[in-house]
Amino acid sequence: MMRRSPLRRIGKKTAARMAHGTPRRPLPARNPERQEASYRRNYAGPLPGDYRLRIVVMPCAACGRRAPSEPAHVRARGMGGAKGCWRDLAPLCGPRFGDVGCHRLFDGDRAAFRARFPGLDLAAIAAELAAAYLAELGLAVDAPPALR
User: Fold this and answer.
1) How many Å apart are CA 26 and CA 79, to the nearest integer?
2) Is the pTM of this model over 0.85?
3) d(C-alpha 122, C-alpha 29), whole Å
């Protein structure tokens, strides 16, 4: 068996760049407007005020553990997509001593979550919380997308 040097494991162009000391391309700058829009779409809600903070102070929807909870997106947008809409947030507890917590269990192993909490419909809970929030703001549940 032939032993290879570390330079043979990388490509020739990379090895040449490393030998000449050419710096790598810098990371692109972050776009603060895009980050803000993504946060508002995923967590914030239709009006100023943070919907995520309302979820954090609620008890866990699965086991009933008291606040603080973690806002869990109950519907994913699929492979490579961003998190779901703010309307899909439900309160689930985070990790604690001796237990992984409902949020991590829900994200990691849906089958184990369903076995532990049979009959629990987090999507219905999230829809109910969002409808109550919109009613509290005086908006119709079927408000135009600009306000949702």
Assistant:
1) 27
2) no
3) 37
